[in-house]
């Protein structure tokens, strides 16, 4: 569609203006785009069609305005501006804005506060020069009457709103990665460029041709977006709800924040010291508050990232329980407290039985799930002050502060009872003797674990000349 339509749209200015071929080309592209868009909506069946219907209604009103404008100027030979065509042109803007707004709300779900503030910063920065060099001069210009003044002001105001929605749409997470969304953004840019250029040219008293191609491209790009196979994805929530401060985004925000002083300088130089202080002051204050809000959100992101990094540094990525590093730190602290206070302390090593066989039979994803389920089930049997950590592979370590040997053995048996998927484990326990180092204590627990595995698995061995407890509940006196 674009392969055929874009060359025709770009060639339109070379047709003799006001002739039937030119009118047929211009209105024909508009009507064809509306029909194609309707076909796209009916064929793709988006989950929320209202947003697309609003865009279609806005396009249909604009195309109708084109036909009315053409008739008034080239058939009735009356001045079409302001006139009946504006009754169709002006409502097309709110409909387009409403459609884009619904898509943005659907994609962000109201969660993307960072993107919203970035869009407000850019929009405020653009609104300031728009007011100073565009809207305000129009309001102070000569007008044929109140209707002429209101219509002349309505177009730039609506264009500023459309700029805001376009910027917001472009800054939503994942927006530029979706082709239909890119087409919609390009469509609004194609609409805004001739709108702004036409208004500025009128202020300067200059005639500019080739603007009609921009409005035709708007029709074609919007229709192409509606016909795209992924058009229904435009209204779906984005997979990512957080925006990162990339260098291009930071550069754009910096330029936007500097527009206020730039406008102040430009007015002082080119308007002979006549500066619109109120507009510049309000715009600068709003930009300052938005930048402060942006910094606050950025600091919040940094704090969350720091907490996540800390969690990743101390927690196992698969099971969520503390990792080997956290185990070493906690064990050394507990040993220090036990030495000072003379408290009892038990260290245990737990190893799932025949884990490799389980992986070979059911696959590694099932093995990972078993580790996660085991860690969750065992954690539920421990106190908050007890520690369960993933030591490595299918091996876990426990630190039981303030527990005696018999109590620690009973706790391990509770863990055995909730071992998921009918699996079993072997365990080795070592009671702190009050003097040994962490490595020595862990080494004793590890030796007890290997003795449990060597004597049949599914049992607990304590390295203190105590009892061996078999999985079936039988206890055998055994010196280790």
TrEMBL record:
Any Pfam family hit: GGDEF
GO biological process terms on file: cell adhesion involved in single-species biofilm formation; negative regulation of bacterial-type flagellum-dependent cell motility
GO molecular function, one term: diguanylate cyclase activity
Highest taxon above the source species: Bacteria
Gene3D superfamilies: 3.30.70.270
Keywords from the named record: Membrane, Transmembrane, Transmembrane helix
Positions of the GGDEF domain: 343-465
PROSITE patterns according to UniProt: GGDEF (PS50887)
Spans annotated as Disordered: 460-480
GO cellular component: plasma membrane
SUPFAM superfamilies: Nucleotide cyclase
Record flagged with keyword DNA damage: no
Transmembrane parts of this sequence: 20-41, 50-68, 88-105, 117-134, 154-171, 250-271, 277-299
Listed PANTHER family: DIGUANYLATE CYCLASE DGCC-RELATED, REGULATORY COMPONENTS OF SENSORY TRANSDUCTION SYSTEM
Protein name listed in UniProt: GGDEF domain-containing protein
UniProt organism field: Paractinoplanes toevensis
